[in-house]
Amino acid sequence: MGGEFLNKCKTGVLQFVIVRFCTTIVAVVLQSMGTYGEGQYDVRNGFFWVWLVNSASQGWALYVLFLFYHATHKDLKEIHPFGKFLCIKAIVFFSYWQGVVIAVLLSHGSITRTDMHSAEMVARAIKDLLVCMEMFVAAIAYQFMFPISDYKGTNDRSRSPELERPRQPTSVAYALWASCLPLELQDDIWVHVSMMCEGLRAACPSFCVCAGKPKRPRRDSNARDSNA
Question: In degrees, to the nearest 5, what angle opens at C-alpha 176 toward C-alphas 172 and 181?
């Protein structure tokens, strides 16, 4: 498995993060302008185009993830990658397509209003209720797909100098800080963009205007934990 294949898989995954962030901002702006039309699949409404871009982006991300799994499932069979893949990606992708189905049912009049709430409120309540129920099932599945034995270092696959090296416990303050700010994701995007720019500079030096930017150094997680 070559580096070019891994870079393409990484590009397919990271593009979803960027696209989703941009479409969320567009949705907020269009909603404030009264031209979003949530749940209405009409080309005159912004919701249709936001849905179309998000669907294409998610489809690409899922495609490259399945390619990555197909290329590495034999090497990773000891950690059961397919179950872990389903537990993580089902939360994001399945809940999204579930919301699309509910929006389609709403647009076709299958979801009606009640005496106290509009049809849109009923659709949102159904979606939120289903997500809460599914997260309960997902939490149970996580106990089986991500057992603590995978991280104790008792298995042969975990006996590497990197994993056996003692680490300082992470403080609660740093854990909260890291969960609020996607610093590692920011580093991944920065490094990946820098690699793409270097590739463009090698192919066409006059095209890539950002090729001269140096790579941003990646932070060492062990160093951050010890500092915290």
Answer: 145
